[in-house]
Every structure is written in C-alpha cells, then in structure tokens.
Amino acid sequence: MSDDAKNVPPRPLSPPRALPPTRVLSGIQPTGRFHWGNYFGAIRQYIELQSVGESYFFIADLHALTTVREPERLRAFVRDAALDLVALGLDPVHAALFVQSDVPEVTELTWLLMTVTPMGLLERCHAFKDKKSRGMAADAGLFTYPVLMSADILAYDATIVPVGEDQVQHIEVCRDLAGTFNHLYGEVFTLPKPRLVEAGARVPGTDGQKMSKSYENTIEVFEEPSVQKKKIMRITTDSRPLEEPKEPEGDHLFDLFSLFAPAAEREAMAALYRRGGFGYGDVKKALVAAAADFFADARRRRAELAADPGTIDAILARGAERARAKAGDVLSRAKRACGLSRLPAQPAGGKA
Ligand code: ADP
Ligand code: TRP
Questions:
Q1: How many domains, the chain?
Q2: Between the CA of residue 87 and those of 221, 281, 295, 302, 305, what are the distances in Å?
Q3: DSSP letter string over 202-234?
C-alpha cells in the first residue's frame, strides 16, 4: 500500500442497496381445456418462473365471463384449469394459485382505475378493435377488459408479468394507468414489466396453422389418449411422400415432434427426414409415443388430484387467502391516496 493510501481514512462502506422484491404474476383464461399451444407457449414458462420470487397465478374467470356464457361449463373449466396447472407442476407452496373472482378487491380496484382510463386508450386495444372490425357486437366487459387486467396486476405489486406477445399491449395499458394514478395521488402502484415468453414458441395445430381453440385444431394436454391418437393420425401433411428426402425444419409434424422428443431423438428424426424412405405414419406414431411419455407423470398426478377434490379446493382457498391479504393492502393504499377512505393517505414509502 502507498503512503498516501495509508493516510486516507477508510471510507465508510455504503449499506448494500436492497433490490426491489420480485413478484411474478400471470393469469390464464378458463375458456376451454388447455392444449399443447397453451402449455408450451405459456403455462410451462409460468411454472419455470414460480420460484424466482413471490408468485401469483390465477385462473381468470372474470375475463372468461365475456365469452363463456354457460355457467356449468365455466365452473368445469375453472376446476379443470386448477387441476391441470397443479398436475403440470405449479407448486402451491411456491405460488399462490387462485381463482380471480375469489379476490373481490380486484374488482373494486378496477373501478378506481376506470376513473383514470381514457376511452381512446381502450378503443385502440386489439381485443375490442378486432371484434368490432369483424362487425361483432362487443360488450363493455370486453371493452374494459384491459382495465380489469391492470387491476389484476397492480393489486399484487407485481414486478414481472410473463405473457404472450398478444398481451404486451395490455401491460402497456396497465403501466399507463398506474402512471396516471401515481401522478395524481402519489406513489401508490408498482409499475410492472412484461416478460415475453419465449419468442418463436408458436405451436402448430393439426392443420399447420397456429394451434388455437378458435381454429378447432387443438390437441389437449389431458384428453383421452385414444382421442389424442386419432387427432395426431389425422394431422395434415404435405402431398409429397416422405419417401422423398425432405427438409424437417418448418414441417409442422416435425415441429410438434420436436416439442416432446429429447435432442438425440429429434436429431435422429431429422436425419430420417433428410434421408427419405419412410412414411409420415411413422412420424405420427413417434409423436403419439413421445407426447404420451412427456406428459405421463402429469397425467398420473392429475388422476390422483381429480380423485381427491378436497385437495384442489384447499389449494385454491389457501391461494385466495394469500392473494386477498396482498390485494387488500394495495387496495387500502389506493383508497387512502385518492380520498375514498376516511383515513388519510399513507406517507410516502408506504408501499411494501
Ligand atoms: P386460444 O388461442 O386457444 O384461445 P389463448 O388465447 O387462451 O388460446 O392462449 C392462452 C395463452 O397460451 C396465451 O398466452 C398464448 O400466448 C398461449 N398460446 C395459445 N396458443 C398458442 C400456440 N399455438 N403457440 C404458442 N402459444 C400459444
Ligand atoms: N388476458 C390474459 C389472456 O387472455 C389473461 C389475464 C388476465 C392476465 N389478467 C391477467 C395475464 C393479468 C397476465 C396478467 O391471456
């Protein structure tokens, strides 16, 4: 050490700066049974994020109410969604798993946000715009859907929201509304960031288009193996026989197989495509086997859970309790800030 350095009094160490807590939140609509597209494009990635911090995952039944109009179907979809998510690996110890409508604080918060929502902002949102451009009647539920979604996020001080590309616009709306509210009333809400789930994870359906309920080309994660097999055997293929060598990349049957097969099997299948001399039927059979293998454990867990309804009820009840505790705090902070509560606004920094 130089003499100079010896004479300089040691600088006090600055205290380590606390990192803001990470809170992951996402929701999924119970508008049907989950299909492979939902799993690889969304659910799998939510589950991977469940242990990076506090996490909240919910079944968005209030959102689904804008499309599912049969009460018994909605009830069944919600229950199935919960069973599916837990069977697929959502761990209720790490994450609060709950049903959106079990947290009424969120609907109350929606109203507060509604009062700072410009009509023009909602008019630009694609769910509403698409429906209108197709000449369909939209209700106020669909129009204000992004406000409810904003409340879903802000109620839990979420910092990271994993979503598909189609939902990024709604997170922008959420940030806008939170920013306006904060500007008017002080630092009430935490601004969330979207986490785009793996780009390119576009799972093709049985007809080669994007797999989607709306195209009736889905293969559901937990449907009967015999039904699944029938659908797979009917997957459309191109008219060239596979006896001719063919490039696997971009072939939707190969893409589906790749989702399930370990790397070595995928490479072996790619080599077979390039070599030629075998049929699409062989690829389909390999896909049936690979998919069955991939979901075998989850299928077993799901059967066990379904046989014991009390377990899933308890998971959802506990999840709602955790969610309500957090949402209640945030709602009371927001009400105090804007003058709805007799209590004065909390001093700055009241945000936990
Ligand atoms: P659907 O198109 O069947 O109605 P949703 O719109 O309810 O499905 O999708 C729920 C989530 O699953 C979204 O986050 C979406 O990005 C994802 N997802 C749906 N279909 C696919 C697909 N084919 N490939 C990748 N991700 C998908
Ligand atoms: N709108 C989302 C979808 O259709 C579901 C959803 C509702 C959501 N509320 C949310 C997703 C809050 C993330 C955060 O996929």
A1: 2
A2: 11, 30, 10, 5, 8
A3: --B-TTSSB--GGGT---BTTS-HHHHHHHHHT
| CA atoms lying within 13 Å on the CB side of residue 125 | 24
**Domain shared by 163 and 268, yes or no:** no
**Segment 128-168, tens digit of pLDDT:** 888 888 888 889 999 999 999 999 999 999 999 999 888 99
Q: Report how far apart, in Å, the C-alpha atoms of 260 and of each of 54, 97, 227, 287, 315 are.
A: 30, 26, 18, 8, 29
Pocket test for ligand 2, best of 109, 163, 166 (most atoms within 8 A of CB): 163
Positions of the chain with pLDDT lower than 70, given as ranges: 1-17, 199-201, 241-242, 348-352
**Are 70 and 183 in a shared domain?**
yes
100 CB within 6 A, ligand 2: no
Domain of 318 in residue numbering reads as 23-203+308-338
Asked if 60 and 172 sit in the same domain, the reply is: yes
Q: What pTM did the predictor assign?
A: 0.91
Among protein residues, the one with the nearest Cα to ligand 1's atom 21 is 37
Q: Could you tell me if 289 and 312 lie in one domain?
A: no
269 and 161, same structural domain?
no
The reply to whether 139 and 44 lie within a common domain is yes
CA distances from 226 to 46, 222, 258, 284, 289 (A): 29, 11, 21, 14, 12
